[in-house]
């Protein structure tokens, strides 16, 4: 058995032993980052990427590529899914490892907020995490409904279903002389039916609306993550999930920018439309670490007042030969002009 296969077995064992971390949100780890440069430049740069928990062996190398991208593109906020920690992984928190690479290689300091989801924190566990160059004024996370299951045999050799937890996290960032901004990060269920994603999305949006309502003033909100739904998948059966987010006042930042700057060439119906023919808009099925069936399942949604000044998909190596392998997901990058 290869080491990576052995690790995957241990990880699955950990999930079976301790599936729910409930709402495990330790206080943010604060550094010296204050993002004063945003005051002058007037915009904030955000990168979202699922970093693949089940391939820990070369994670530091893949994180170096992410750090290089963050330095080159002046990324202020990094939204991460499938961060790992515990004895099996060799790290307490892989988001902290990325933070150290950013500091040591590029002299960039980030604050960090982690929201643990699945597994045993002492053995193996997975989390969402947010790295921010801006000061974190407030953080919280909320569990999403139990709709995703794994199966194991009990002592009587009967199959037993174990529910998997997912969550949504928020950080409220302080941007000098420009006020505050709410940033949300999530990872919606993968092994679930469409109605399961619908239930999680309903709870997620309820949380987002409640947090935005508590926040005084008229500031932008950002909602990013791995949503695991695609507008084209299942003959469009999941399109209504995307529409639910839009109907709550958000825009699909990447899609809006690409369509507005395509001179009529692109529409919502042309962004990663063919699963067997990956294009520059796809976020899965575009890496050596996963197979075909290209889809756009990773998003950054924004709520006005805000103007999208730039957007791209990063690390879709099978489309762009110059891109490195960092995950089985590509990343979504946007630049958001602030009021």
For the structure shown, list the relevant keywords.
339 residues, alpha+beta, seven-stranded mixed β-sheet, 8 helices, Deoxyribonuclease I, Chain A, 15 strands, 32% strand
Structure, briefly:
With 339 residues, the protein is α+β, with helices and mostly antiparallel strands. Helices cover 26% and strands 32% of the residues. The chain is globular.
What does this structure look like?
- With 339 residues, this protein is of the alpha+beta class.
- It contains eight helices and 15 strands.
- The strands form three sheets. Strands 1-4-5-3-2-15-14 form a seven-stranded mixed beta sheet, with helices on both faces.
- The longest helix is centred in the middle third of the chain and has 21 residues, at 194-214.
- The termini are far apart.
- The model is unreliable at 9-23 (pLDDT under 50).
């Amino acid at each position: 058995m290869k080491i990576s296969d052995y690790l995957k077995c241990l990880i699955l064992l950990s999930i079976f032993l301790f599936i729910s971390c409930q709402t495990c949100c330790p206080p943010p780890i604060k550094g010296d980052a204050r993002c004063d440069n945003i005051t002058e430049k007037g915009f904030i740069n955000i990168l979202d990427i699922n970093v693949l928990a089940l391939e820990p062996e070369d994670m530091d190398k893949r994180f170096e590529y992410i750090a290089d991208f963050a330095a080159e593109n002046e990324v202020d906020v990094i939204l991460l899914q499938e961060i790992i920690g515990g004895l099996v992984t060799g790290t307490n928190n892989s988001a902290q490892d990325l933070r150290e690479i950013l500091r040591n290689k590029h002299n960039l300091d980030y604050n960090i907020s982690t929201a643990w989801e699945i597994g045993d924190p002492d053995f193996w566990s997975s989390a969402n995490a947010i790295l921010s160059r801006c000061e974190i004024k407030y953080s919280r996370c909320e569990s999403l409904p139990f709709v995703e299951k794994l199966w194991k045999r009990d002592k009587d050799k009967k199959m037993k279903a174990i529910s998997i937890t997912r969550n949504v996290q928020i950080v409220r960032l302080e941007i000098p002389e420009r006020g505050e901004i709410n940033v949300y990060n999530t990872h919606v269920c993968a092994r679930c039916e469409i109605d399961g994603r619908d239930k999680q999305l309903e709870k997620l949006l309820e949380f987002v609306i409640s947090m935005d309502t508590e926040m005084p003033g008229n500031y932008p909100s950002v909602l990013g993550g791995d949503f695991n739904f695609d507008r084209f998948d299942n003959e469009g059966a999941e399109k209504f999930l995307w529409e639910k987010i839009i109907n709550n006042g958000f825009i699909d930042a990447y899609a809006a920018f690409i369509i507005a700057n395509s001179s009529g060439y692109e529409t919502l119906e042309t962004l990663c439309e063919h699963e067997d023919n990956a294009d520059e808009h796809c976020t899965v099925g575009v890496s050596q670490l996963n197979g075909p069936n290209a889809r756009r399942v990773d998003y950054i949604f924004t709520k006005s007042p805000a103007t999208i000044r730039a957007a791209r998909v990063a690390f879709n190596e099978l489309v762009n030969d110059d891109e490195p392998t960092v995950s089985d997901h590509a990343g979504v990058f946007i630049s958001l002009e602030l009021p």
